[in-house]
Fold this sequence. Notes:
mainly alpha, Arc Repressor Mutant, subunit A, Tetracycline Repressor, domain 2
Amino acid sequence: MVKTPTGNPVGRPREFDEAAVLEAAMEAFWRKGYEATSLADLTECTRLNKASLYRVFGDKHQLFMAALKNYADIEFRETTAVVSDAASPLTNIRAVVKKICDDAGSDKGCMMINSMVELAPHDSEVKALLQKFGEQRLQAIQAMIVQAQAADEIRAELDPQKLAVSLMIAFAGSAAMVKGFMPDTQIVDNLENLIDSWT
Amino acid sequence: MVKTPTGNPVGRPREFDEAAVLEAAMEAFWRKGYEATSLADLTECTRLNKASLYRVFGDKHQLFMAALKNYADIEFRETTAVVSDAASPLTNIRAVVKKICDDAGSDKGCMMINSMVELAPHDSEVKALLQKFGEQRLQAIQAMIVQAQAADEIRAELDPQKLAVSLMIAFAGSAAMVKGFMPDTQIVDNLENLIDSWT
DNA sequence: TTTATTTGTAACCATTCGGTTTAAAATTAG
DNA sequence: CTAATTTTAAACCGAATGGTTACAAATAAA
């Protein structure tokens, strides 16, 4: 919208909140995946008609990318927020595990893993974004492991990078399995056992 | 085709091999997923026109189900074939791990995991089939672990069911990650470390 | 009031989608 | 040869797809 000399916007005011629209679109893409989410689905869940969606976000792919970024930002922010115990890095790691499990609950999985499986081999833009998010998370997890080793909570002889990789792979596997047939309890148990094996 | 009194088929002979068609369709679904694979894709890779595809397989969904079963059968058969060392169950487990990693190489992942992520929450038929395959594999892996424990190759105090679950989740995570940004070497290394941690 | 700009509405568009039908081709049987 | 059956080839079909356009509605500025 163009700012006028008085600072007031010209033109009809928006009847929607852009962030709420993005959130609704993100939810649809997260549940159904990219290909299976149609523009009709998106107009329905956002209550915005197609022309408005195109005006704000450009096209379906761009809306998807914005939704994926939104998902990753929220997940990272919320996961970071549970890292609150300065005295026990291991407790923080467990809190992160719990947080991620809660988010992937029922059968939505993780939008990043969903997108990796569905799109990464064929869409280099998605792949690049997921790589950025993945490396960011690996670094964060590895840093927490290093702290836990310094605090004598995790065995010092273990390679923190390898541990971080194993936890990331376990997250990815959990996010996939939760959409199929494996009970949540089994999945949570496995992640806890993995961390226990480091102590 | 109707069998005549002389046992000879009536009508124009087929110009295709059903198994080869199924294999080609399976490859397409494996690489692109269900939604993103169009009938045009399928007629191209199978070199069979649509009417013929419909005649043999029914519709897209049924073709997909047949392809998924085919994939699972092949994978199970080939994986079982590498279980050849009667003296060392642990060697067999390692061979299975290697086999599965080789199959998921580059960025195709695993058709079962791909389908779980894309379809299982919304398609109960796919979900039921994947559950059957998953439980079958869990049993097989668990049996091998029990044997390795009996042979003193894996620690006896570990719960074989939990180990089998952890390996399945690691396979699923590997199948997802291999489609994204994680190098094969890191993924193989993680699986090997997991098994090493049982000994 | 007119002009300019943005947004909402609804229709439009070309292409693609999964599925079906028609007619010719290829075989066996009588 | 005709009749029956199956397969191939190609066209057809209605609906769905992602994207665009035309116009009315809602605002600010002059």
